[in-house]
Amino acid sequence: MNKPARSLPFIPVAAPSITEREGELAREAALTAWGPGHYAFNARFESMMAQYVGVNHAASLPHATSGLHLALAAAGIGPGDEVIGPDVTWIASMAPISYVGAKPVFVDILPDTWCIDPDAVEAAITPRTKAIIGVDLYGSMCDWQRLRAIADRFKIVLIEDSAEALGSIFDGKKAGSLGDMAVFSFHGSKTITTGEGGMIVTNDDDLFARIQKLRDHGRPPGDRFFQNDEVAFKYKMSSVQAALGVAQMERIETLIAYKRQLFGWYRDRLGYVDGIQLNAEPDLVSNSYWMVTAVPESSFGHDKFSLQAALRNHGIDSRPFFSRLTNLGAFKDHPQSVRPPLCKRSSDLAPTCGINLPSGYGLDENTVDRVCVSLKKILSTPALV
Ligand SMILES: Cc1ncc(COP(=O)(O)O)c(C=O)c1O
Q1: Is 134 in the pocket of ligand 1 (CB under 6 A)?
Q2: CA distances for 250 relative to 19, 21, 32, 39, angstroms
Q3: Is the CB of 63 under 6 A from ligand 1?
Q4: Does the beta carbon of 161 lie inside 6 Å of ligand 1?
Q5: CB-based contact 280:112 (threshold 8 Å)
Q6: Architecture in CATH for domain 20-249
Q7: Strand ranges of the sheet holding 285-286, from the earlier edge strand across to the other edge
Q8: At the top level of CATH, which class does the domain 252-379 belong to?
Q9: What distance in Å separates the CA atoms of residue 135 and residue 90, rounded to the nearest whole number?
Q10: 274 phi/psi in degrees, rounded to 5
Q11: 77-124 pLDDT, tens per residue?
Q12: Are 60 and 44 in contact (CB under 8 A)?
């Protein structure tokens, strides 16, 4: 095994962009956001997000996972219902279906955008289907035109998991404005961060009222007397986190421009290499490239884990492409189904061979060059397996 390149600095796969401004606002929140001003930073952050995404309502949450849980609960989904979502995504996209006692129905993704296949969605609809979850994977956008048409035709709820896609655009509309409800994640690796954190957004007044009640232990609107009339959840974000979010949103255009520039540096070096697929940007889409992703053909002789190990020896961190959830043990004790049956797997390459390359803030073009030189060198030598 090669020795790690110790003389060169280690390149992390993700890193946030944190300035004095984040520190200043977090300090201000810690010192002032109490009593009547307890949620003042949350209100500012929510209004900045709603305005940026182009929706009427936004609620700040502990994480995107709670947002998906709330979306399903607000739509009244429960035992006996089915919810269709992609087989390849982070588990948080699909786990909340099990939280509400409904059945996740896993369908295939498209081989180019790595997002849910609308034909597979249509084929999976049954009288029990109550919702579709589309995931904007790594900043790519689902085919929201097709998904919207299917949801409207079958009168089912369309949920957008835009956890990874803040700043992406489909047909002039921002990620987060395409579902009936949508969620964002502000985990430390994401496009903007509050440490941990999330947001749910919607244009629907009734759904938003329901979300507000469900995330506050079932208190009726305006309740000041602790007269809860149902058992629900407590999903709120702290003011110090919200202050970080305000500081991040003040620079959102610069942050998205950086992500697109970073992808451009990778594309210049890897885009022409035969047999390596990068994130797609089809017509109608502007991709905010949360994570630069490379999928080498299997003919290179590497899978994602051997590639990661080899890159680590070059002092470069990476992440494996998400695995098929139906290949994991996680859902084995939960009701679930896969439709259509697991024969159509045109898109198996990405979950087998794909990796996310360093995509954090603060990387310069020389660093991207180092990553690409290493990757091409590794791919020119078959893995020792
Ligand atoms: C596609 C997707 N959905 C949902 C989530 C959940 O986000 P959180 O960690 O904020 O709950 C993530 C987070 O990594 C994600 O990548």
Answers
A1: no
A2: 12, 10, 20, 18
A3: yes
A4: yes
A5: yes
A6: 3-Layer(aba) Sandwich (3.40)
A7: 173-174, 169-170, 285-286
A8: alpha beta
A9: 9
A10: -60, 135
A11: 999 999 999 999 999 999 999 999 999 999 999 999 999 999 999 999
A12: no
